């Protein structure tokens, strides 16, 4: 058996009838994948009042509809969920009836905490599904404008 120098390469014989991998020239593609489950947020981009008239005579153009196009976006940002609980007071003189009643509070995972369920869910998904370290998760929240103390997550 002959030994090969480093400069020599072993080349497999090419077969002329073997197809290349991937998309073949002339083959029909599948097109764009429809995603009808995504919610649609409509934006209206209007022309300025100067653009809506003829630059020569000043006569206004007639509007005849819109040209629509779709962009898929991801819009995720921290926000404050302000919960307003209705309060009522009695307007009668009946005895044995509580004077003021208030709607029940929103459920919380950590009592007396301002951290919502969605934040803790996001932490758990990133930690266990995506295997992110807690300090990176905390840095990511801080980068999004919502700093969280490490003790809120670790319990220390």
The biggest beta sheet, please?
Answer: 2 strands, antiparallel
Q: Strand pairing plus helix content: what structural class?
A: mainly alpha
Cα end-to-end separation = 68 Å
Question: Unreliable runs, pLDDT <50, ≥5 residues?
Answer: none
The backbone outline, from C-alpha atoms, is flat
Q: Can you give the mean pLDDT?
A: 79
Helix content: 10-25%
Quote the beta fraction. under 5%
The number of helical elements comes to 3
Query: What does the radius of gyration come to?
Result: 32 Å
Order of helices and strands: EEHHH
Number of strands: 2
Oligomer state equals single chain
What is this structure, in a nutshell?
The protein has 156 residues and is mostly helical.
List the helices and strands and how they pair.
Layout lengths: L86 E3 L10 E3 L14 H13 L4 H10 L6 H5 L2
Antiparallel strand pairs: 1-2
Question: Descriptors for this entry?
Answer:
156 residues, mainly alpha, two-stranded antiparallel sheet, 3 helices, 2 strands, flat
Structure notes:
With 156 residues, this protein is mainly alpha-helical. A two-stranded antiparallel sheet has the order 1-2. The longest helix has 13 residues. It is flat. The mean pLDDT is 79.
